[in-house]
Amino acid sequence: MPERPEMVEGAEMPERPEMVEGAEMPDQLPVTQGTDLAGVGQDQVMTETSDYEPIWVTSTIAFEGDVWENVGIRFKGNSSLKSVASTDVDKFSFKLDFDEFEDDYPEIENQRFYGFKQLNLNNNFGDSSLLHEKVAADLFRDFGLVSANTSFCAVYVDYGEGSQYFGLYTIVEEVDDTVIENQFGDDDGNLYKPDGNAASFAQGSFDESQMEKKNNEDEADYSDVEALYTIINSDLRTTDVEGWKDSLEEVFNVDGFLKWLAVNTTIQNWDTYGTMTHNYYLYNDPATGLLNWIPWDNNEALTTGKKGDLSIGLTEVNDNWPLISYIIEIPEYEAIYKGHLAQFVEEVFNETTMTDTYDDLSALIQPYAYAEEEGYTFIKSDDAFDKAIEGLYTHVIERNAAVEAYLAQ
Q: For the chain, first and last CA: distance in Å?
């Protein structure tokens, strides 16, 4: 393993860099300070049931001397939110909406934060390296897939009793805000965030209520996702393979899905399709008329030994996940998948490139990670952070070897 650059012990957090204007994530570390949050408390995190309605309240966001008033803020998350709520750690994830309250405060109509309407502040729960979310999202995009831009953010929160450092967060771009507009160039198509049994696309599972529309809600048109469900489960798959492939490719970006699958199985990411019925979007690109797969919520990526991790050969995936099992059993599609695997580890996820990435990012965030305080951190110690970073270097080597062994069979 290559030597890492030396990090100075006890390093102080560097001065706050300026954020670049425009709807692009900054490369450096913006510091977001939320004030006037007395209305947000832990009692608003969850209801008595497993489902909850997020509660928006107003806040003030300050950065580099600029101030955004009456910004909507709420807690975010599902299982991770429950987990945080059951601990003594108050490092919650947040969602910001800069014009959520424009009806109440007309002066903030179309208010934006450097071009962004909404942003997610993810707490990196369960990730002592603090890098999984950002690195995974970048890897998808580096391989030519649509994926949210991310950056890091040192967050200070004032509930009315003084500013408290909540730790280092990952800022994640909202898919139904700027991701579609910037990466597709046209945001008029239907955008879905499937969640629940219907998100599996398994036979008998289709349910419009679980195909949450993030736009065009008034039209109530689900014909595109229903067409994907119908063809993926069609008898043509066994009676007329070429006809089935043609019909599938008329509604679904199969090659894009296989690229995502190659990346996802290489880096290991159990909390998504193939194991869990959530954490992806589907967008019907008006330019092609095809549904495109967009990964989401990558904090569980880049881990080893999770129970739900899929093998590179995908042999354990059954009919409950037809978008994988039915597609990959077609020899032509399997060959495309293997080609994407080989290209990904050669051009993007290779040891040299990832060593440089981890060197740069770990040096950037180390002072902020070391500065996290008890009650506002999931990192047990500075040594735990360092070991988590070292584990990422090892992970690259192991996963490259696994892909090479699979392709050599």
A: 26
Q: What is the pLDDT of residues 192-212, one digit of tens each?
A: 999 999 999 999 999 999 999
Residues in the chain: 409
Instruction: Determine the 3-state secondary structure of 317 from DSSP.
Output: coil
Calpha distance 233→202 (Å, rounded)? 7
Do residues 251 and 230 make contact, with C-beta atoms less than 8 angstroms apart?
Answer: no
Average pLDDT, the chain: 89
Helices 382-407 and 254-267: angle between axes, nearest 10 degrees: 130
Contact partners, residue 232, CB within 8 Å, separation at least 6 = 201, 248, 252, 322, 323, 326
For residue range 173-199, list pLDDT tens digits in order.
Answer: 999 999 999 999 999 999 999 999 999
Provide the H-helix boundaries in 102-206: 132-142, 180-184
Kindly compute the dihedral angle of the four CA atoms of residues 97, 116, 95, 159, in this order, to the nearest 10 degrees.
-70
For residues 305 and 314, what is the distance between their CA atoms, to the nearest angstrom? Answer: 16
Strands (E), 125-238: 150-158, 163-173, 191-194, 211-213
- The SS3 of residue 72 is strand
